[in-house]
Write a structure and sequence with these properties.
Elements: H1 15-20, E1 37-39, E2 42-43, E3 48-52, E4 60-65, E5 68-75, E6 80-84, E7 92-98, E8 101-109, E9 118-122, H2 127-145, H3 151-161, E10 169-170, H4 184-187, H5 201-206, H6 209-213, E11 231-235, H7 242-252, E12 257-261, E13 263-267, H8 279-286, E14 297-303, E15 305-306, E16 309-310, E17 313-320, E18 323-329, H9 332-342, E19 347-352, E20 360-361, H10 362-378, E21 381-386, E22 388-389, H11 395-405, E23 411-414, E24 447-449, E25 452-454, E26 459-466, E27 471-472, E28 491-494, E29 496-499, E30 502-505, H12 507-522, H13 544-547
Parallel strand pairs: 2-8, 14-19, 14-21, 21-23, 23-26, 26-28
Antiparallel strand pairs: 1-3, 3-6, 4-5, 4-7, 5-6, 7-8, 9-11, 9-12, 10-11, 13-20, 13-22, 15-16, 17-18, 24-25, 26-27, 29-30
Length: 551
């Protein structure tokens, strides 16, 4: 599912900075129980979800999910407050606010294509437990829920328990030597593995669902060790609410299992002057690129392309500067060509994680990142380009990103385009992962630069910079959506190029500019460069000292 945003001329220059500062947290009142929470942790538009552990609120009323309003009512058997996720709800983590009780909760709104199943990651020493006790644990929880859970939850438990345990296979070949290299990688290292306590059959028989959901009693999530050593399997969810399946499996196998949707996102592309000029010519004009090389570095392009081709075609016409271009081919190949233009001396490694229809596989993306980690352990310098993403944060992707960045491998991720936020209203949060994790991948001491305190990151969230206007491009996520909340990017780069007579534009094509610059930097400099978000109109978005770091 490719999303395309068309350029419009807007006077606003820096709305993203305002939107990024608009988010505020509300404190919990004394009348709300400390165990208050949301079940399931994720739900799709149209599905039912519940708030548990609240007191002192009316039995029915209204609540907000982001900027969307929906009604709730008391489910008397469970004491939970039931509500339906609005069809127009924004995707990804949204603030959930109950009117009359200023308790702020979170719900991950799943905006996923039909047929998305549950992907499970199981730590190797827990695989036998998961397969042997899968049905018994679901049956045990079904029995304890018989009188205390909403009827719909009971039905889901029964139907899920009627399925066989998922078949499990190693996510990748066993990864040897989990240590990380010193220096930069050590500062960004994954925390040491800690064996999480297990939920067992006796616990499930003695505890109802509310007790399991209690955040005080719930064991930490797992696996805490290398995602690349996990086993993986798929649980079919046809006719079942995916969010409940994900939440229930994590609850009954806490300490051994984690879950994700099988779909991780889509390639992002969105409108380019300098018609039919080569990308390097454009970059020489706007960034004054002189002698970029990237020699000795490998750029891994995780996208629609394979080493031999790219079967993706964007169906239909795109309107670019009032001219129609039909059936534009490629996405990953275009990304790779831009990266190669910036760093011609780098080796390009295409890893296909997205299908020709534009849907991207969670499992394939995690496996590709684990393969990059294995390459990094064998030596050399590596960069990852991810010109894809979606509104829902996937745990396997985050863990795999931490695996590669802990080895000193930086990642450039597309920030996301304006169509990601289409139809959202004030108060909705417009998410795009993995780019929105950029702050959590920061490391080392802060650096004072132009009266700002900045820290370097191993995950660069790359927004598009308008070549013609010399400023933040209007196709970026959040632009033109007043009141919609979004995380600010970490850096801007030109994202408008011509290849093979077609225009390629959007944050997908800004990310490989940064990937190429990272490869060029790493060919002669240690670590990664500090790339601040430069927002001064007319000023180049990336400093010359980074663009031309090598002689």
């Amino acid at each position: 599912m490719i999303r395309t945003a068309f350029r419009t001329r807007l006077p606003a220059l820096l709305p993203l900075l305002l939107l990024g500062a608009a988010h505020a947290q509300l404190s919990a009142p004394a009348t709300v129980a400390r165990t208050a929470g949301v079940y399931p942790a994720a739900a799709a538009p149209g599905e039912t979800a519940w708030i548990f552990g609240l007191s002192g609120v009316p039995a029915e009323g209204k609540l907000n999910i982001g900027g969307q309003t929906t009604e709730y009512r008391l489910d008397r058997p469970s004491g939970w407050l039931a509500f339906q996720v609005p069809q127009a709800a924004a995707g990804g983590p949204q603030t959930l606010t109950l009117r009359g009780a200023p308790q702020t909760l979170r719900l991950n709104v799943l905006t996923l294509p039909p047929g998305t199943d549950a992907l499970v990651y199981v730590r190797p020493d827990g695989a036998k437990t998961v397969q042997a006790e899968y049905t018994r644990r679901l049956q045990a929880l079904t029995e304890t829920c018989a009188k205390s859970c909403p009827a719909e939850v009971q039905s889901v438990l029964k139907r899920l328990g009627a399925q066989p345990a998922p078949a499990l296979a190693p996510l990748t070949a066993p990864v040897k030597g989990q240590g990380v290299t010193p220096g930069l990688a050590a500062r960004a290292a994954v925390p040491p593995a800690v064996r999480a306590p297990l939920i067992n059959l006796n616990t499930l028989k003695a505890t109802n669902l509310t007790g399991l959901l209690n955040p005080v009693a719930r064991p930490p999530a797992a696996p805490a060790d290398s995602i690349c050593s996990a086993l993986a399997g798929t649980v079919p969810t046809a006719g079942l609410p995916l969010g409940q399946v994900l939440t229930l499996l994590e609850l009954i196998f806490a300490g051994d299992l984690q879950t994700d949707p099988t779909w991780v996102g889509y390639p992002t592309q969105s409108d380019a002057p300098y018609q039919n000029e080569k990308p390097i010519t454009v970059l020489q004009k706007v960034l004054q690129v002189r002698a970029a090389s990237g020699k000795g570095t490998t750029i891994h392009v995780l996208d629609t392309a394979t080493p031999t081709g790219d079967s993706f075609v964007m169906d239909g016409d795109i309107n670019y500067y009032n001219q129609l271009y039909g059936n534009r081919p490629y996405h990953g190949r275009a990304v790779g060509e831009i990266a190669r233009a910036v760093a011609p001396g780098a080796q390009l490694n295409y890893r296909q994680v997205c299908e020709k229809d534009g849907t991207c596989s969670t499992l394939k993306t995690v496996q590709a990142l684990c393969a990059v980690a294995a390459d990094a352990r064998r030596g050399g310098r590596h960069v990852v380009n991810l010109s894809l993403g979606g509104p829902n944060p996937t745990r396997g992707l985050e863990l795999a990103l931490r695996e590669v960045t802990a080895l000193g491998v930086p990642v450039a991720a597309s920030y996301g385009n304006r169509d990601d936020c289409a139809g959202l209203v004030a108060g909705d949060r417009c998410n795009h992962y993995p780019a929105d994790w950029t702050r959590s991948f920061e490391f080392g001491p802060a650096v004072n630069l132009a009266s700002r305190s900045l820290r370097p990151t191993m995950l660069f969230s790359v927004a598009g910079w308008d070549i013609a206007g010399g400023q933040l491009a209007t196709y970026n996520r959040g632009v033109g959506n007043p009141g919609v909340l979004t995380e600010a990017p970490s850096v801007q780069a030109p994202g408008e190029f011509w290849l093979g007579g077609y225009p390629y534009f959007g944050t997908s094509f800004a990310a490989p500019v940064v990937s190429g610059l990272l490869a060029s930097w790493m060919s002669c400099q240690p670590g990664v460069p500090l790339l601040p978000l430069i927002t001064t109109p007319g000023q180049a978005p990336i400093a010359a000292s980074v663009v031309n770091a090598c002689p």
